[in-house]
Amino acid sequence: MQYLSPLLRIYNINLQPTNSQPIDIQSAKTYLYPGAHIATANSHEHFHHGIVVDLTSTDISVVHFWGVRKREARIQTTTLPIFIAGGIKRVGIRSRKLYIVQYQNDTLEKQEETKRRAKNLLDNPDCYKYNMFRLNCESFAYFCRTEKWESEQVVIIRLFLSNKKKQISNQIKRTKDRCKSSYVLAMKIIPIGIPSFI
Question: What is the pTM of this model?
Fold first, then answer.
C-alpha cells in the first residue's frame, strides 16, 4: 500500500467511489443515516469504506473492515472520528474528506437491510480474513449494501496496471540498461575487484 499513493499521484488516478458525494464532517449527522455506505480519503489515496450503524450515540458508529496492519484487519465498530483519522492514535492529527456513496432506488428498507448485514458480519468478525484484492473494506461495505463482494478500487487499479504493463516494463528495462551502462563505464574507469552483479 505504501507505493499506491505515489502511483495514484503520478498517473492522476482518482479512486473516488462512483455516485459518491463529499459531505461536511461537522454536519455529518444531518446527511448520514443507519445503513449509509461512507468512504474517506484525501487526494491520491485509496478510499476506506464503512457502514454507518448508529447515529444516536455521541459519536456516529461505523462498522468496517480495518486493522492497524492489513494482516490483522477484521470487521469491527469504531466511531466516525476514528474511521476518518484511520485509527485512534491519529484522531486530531490526521483528517480525511468524508463521502457518502449513493445508490439508485434507495429505500428505508434497503438502508435497514444494509445495517442488519453489517451487524450480522460483525457478530463473527474472525470468519472473514482480509484480502486486499477480494475481501477488503470496500467489498465489505458493498456486500452489506448489495450482497455482492466487489471492489471498484481494485477493478480500477487492475485495469490501469494491465493497460500500463508494457509501459512500466519498458521503463524498468530502460532503468536497468542505464544502470548497466553506468556500471560498465565505472568498471572501465576504476577497474578494481568489484564483483559482477549484472
Answer: 0.81
Q: How far apart are CA 110 and CA 88, in angstroms?
A: 30
For residue 127 the three cell numbers come to 470468519
pLDDT at 188 (0 to 100): 62
Helix axes 152-189, 137-146, angle to 10 degrees: 160
pLDDT in tens, 55-83: 988 889 999 998 877 778 889 999 999 99
Using CA atoms in the order 170, 173, 175, 177, what is the torsion angle rounded to 10 degrees?
-140
Q: In DSSP terms, which residues pair with 24 in a beta bridge?
A: none
Strands (E), the chain: 20-23, 37-41, 48-54, 61-66, 74-79, 97-101
Average pLDDT over residues 25-40: 94
Closest CA to 112 of 191, 41, 53: 53
Longest Cα–Cα distance of the chain, Å, equals: 77
> How many angstroms separate the CA atoms of 137 and 116, rounded?
17
pLDDT for 155 beyond 70: yes
Distance CA 187, CA 125 (A): 58
Whole-angstrom distance, CA of residue 124 vs CA of residue 118? 11
Q: Mean pLDDT score of the chain, rounded to an integer? A: 87
